[in-house]
Amino acid sequence: MAKHTYKFCFGPWNISEGQDPYGPPVRSPQSFDWKLKQLKRLGFDAMMFHDDDAVPEIDTKSDAQVRKEVRELRQKLNDAGVAAEMVAPRLWFDPRTIDGAFTSNDPQCRKYAIQRSLRCIDVARQLGTDLIVLWLAREGSYIRESKNARQCMDYLVEAVDAMLAYDKKIRISIEPKPNEPMDQAYLPTIGHALALAQLTRDPKRVGCVMESAHAILVGLDPADEIDFAMSFGKLWSLHLNDQNGLKFDQDKPFGSANLRVAFNQVRALERNGYGRKGEYVGFDVHPFRTTKVEHWLAHLENSRRTFLKLVQKARTFNEKQARTLIKNRDYAALDQMVIEHLLGK
Questions:
Q1: What local confidence, expressed as pLDDT, does residue 1 receive?
Q2: Distance between CA atoms of residues 22 and 302, nearest Å
Q3: Sign of the dihedral defined by the CA atoms of residues 93, 95, 58, 164, in that order
Q4: 317-330 burial, b for 16+ CB within 10 Å, e for fewer?
Q5: Which of 154, 233, 282, 341 is the most buried if burial means most Cβ atoms within 10 Å?
Q6: Residues that are catalytic
Q7: Looking at the domain that runs over 8-316, which CATH code has it been given?
Q8: 283: closest CA among 11, 5, 4?
Q9: Which band of pLDDT confidence, cut at 50, 70 and 90, is reported for residue 246?
């Protein structure tokens, strides 16, 4: 099978200012136009969006205003030769989503979350993408007795069904994460996301996004999550990064903490043909808080460079020799073979 060329994307939030729960920003914000210019210069092909990245303060604007601003954004993207990879409703900033969005105990808050998601679909349609990503940030609980988890599954299906009914062409990708900001989330893994998909009105249009750090946070290997999702044909987007252990979501540059784990993710993408149907490789990475302004984009450039080097490592890995070692159950030799291949000559 001929080797294919990967396409890359990132979001405006990936050029962050360094704010964290314990400290303020350490770099001054840059404009969207500046970020768009850097994206193309670094060799990226598309941009990921939240709905309010596309239309700031979207809840305060009329439908006509939203359409006007999205038209202007679409023109900027066209002029830059950049595509919109996906749009996600940001359902975790508004006061109405404090107790969850789709799974809030307040029916008016659940109604808001669905209406916001339908507006997000309008934005995506105008930007020329059919991919809606749902990061279910607050769909969980801090105190398990505060919610009925069985009922919350119904609420999630109701929300997804409303989106599928609103637009017959969109695809919905669920991005699972086990915790943070919630103590425990309802859909922590790819398996949970794909199981929920089967309960919706059109399971064929509900898939998933795999994020490396999120898989590590739940104690899983991201490569296994990639293989699992692609065995169902449901890996429609990808957020590669890295994570140092089971702590807060770090969004380190791809391969930063564990190069071998990164290598195996690339091998999984290669053997499954990820990207052959137009899927993008997204890097959901952030600069270290200590980063100087002059090094602000290194995390993005480095992640892409590491990925492409690991593609070559995957394509030059001696699979025939590996199969022989596997047949002989000589896993010690296989282990060393991988290490030496990554170390290089």
A1: 59
A2: 26
A3: positive
A4: beeeeeeebeeeee
A5: 282
A6: 50, 53
A7: 3.20.20.150
A8: 11
A9: confident
